[in-house]
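Repro:
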Amino acid sequence: MFKWSMAALGGIACILGITVLFMQVQHNQSKAKPEASSAALPDTAVNAQAAEVIYKQSCIACHGNDLEGKVGPNLQKIGGKLSDQQLYKVIQNGRGGMPSFKTALKNEELVNLAKWLADKK
């Protein structure tokens, strides 16, 4: 009888484990954002003067006077590596040691800065 009880408990534990694993996979899939949902940035002209002001206020300490990099990476040719949309996401959400600027800057400023950096090739 003891063997049957242990076998039944083992089977139940196995089923529960599989169920939990399945639920975790489902949860992770529901959290994933499909690339197609990434809307393109507005088709607006870059205001270089405004972007430079934002850069000096928010970025220069880590990325240097001439975008040469200090604590943060060199941005002099970042537009050759990342698109304006990718740059927008990095500036908005942060990455690695870089903080998020979504609450510090207006969306128009984020877009303009991302487009300005994307022109650096």
